[in-house]
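Blinded run. Sample ID left blank on purpose so nobody reads anything into the name before looking at the predicted structure. Input follows.
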Amino acid sequence: MRSETPCNDSWAFAEGFDPAWVAAPLPGRTVSLPHTAVELPLSYFDEKSYQRAFTYQRVIPWEDRFAGREVSLQLEGAMADALVLVNGQEVARHRDGYTPFEARLTPHLRHGDNLVTVRIDGSENPEIPPFGGQIDYLTYAGLYREVHLRVTAPHWIANVKIETPEPLRAKKSVHARVMLAGEGRDARVEARLTSPDGTEVARTSVVAKGADDVALRIREIAAQHHLPMLEAPPLARALYFHVDLDREIPIELYTVVAEVVAWAIRLKRVSEHGGDLPPTPVNLTVPPGMDQRGPRTPTPEDDPNA
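Blinded prediction complete.
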């Protein structure tokens, strides 16, 4: 069962950021969230006053309910470039001040106190909305919305999208897109469709990733719609075994994945503007051993010095 606990009090706050600060709790004043790093006067303000780094810290003590569960922080708003570290290890990076994000704590928690550090940087950066000359919004800096501690089962349903594509047809269908989260692999999702009186109308189940029968069904649908297909079993296995949901791909796969992405971009250009189809990549190889099940390959997100 999922639980969410507010984590809006007892945050230590300091101006600036020093990598050494992630090793021990910061002294000084504490604040409650939502919080703005700099209070701007109504009459006049200098943008440079908040276009710099700030640090928030909070201790999360170990609880018995964390054992065997998925634990994460849900940050509803952090302006603008946010870096989250737990016990000195980077666990999340979010470069968008207007959208919420999640920082997964599970593999980094330990018995006793756990130190969460959030570095906020309000500096103007053309790669981060709204900077870059595209829109003109007032920006600021700080953890300006609530933070929650979420505890769930090891793998769980993060979101569900239900579609009824042609409800007026005599033979109706329901499409369910189920988004899973957590560490669980090869999880099986079962769906039941019932009438208002509880009578079961339909039932189906599927594994969480596109393997075996699911992968075959994907190929069948692509063939029905005459879509180009790229089959690269070593790459597919490497991604299956070493990449988690919403995580960056391992650096060892950057080159081969970039080749696939470039091919897809060329396909899109042909579909929009016409022309000859680009040749399908062949002989896509991955580093030895990566197409086998093994420990999850570390990513740059796992290295606080990256």
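Unblinding after everyone has recorded impressions. The two ends are 35 Å apart (CA to CA).
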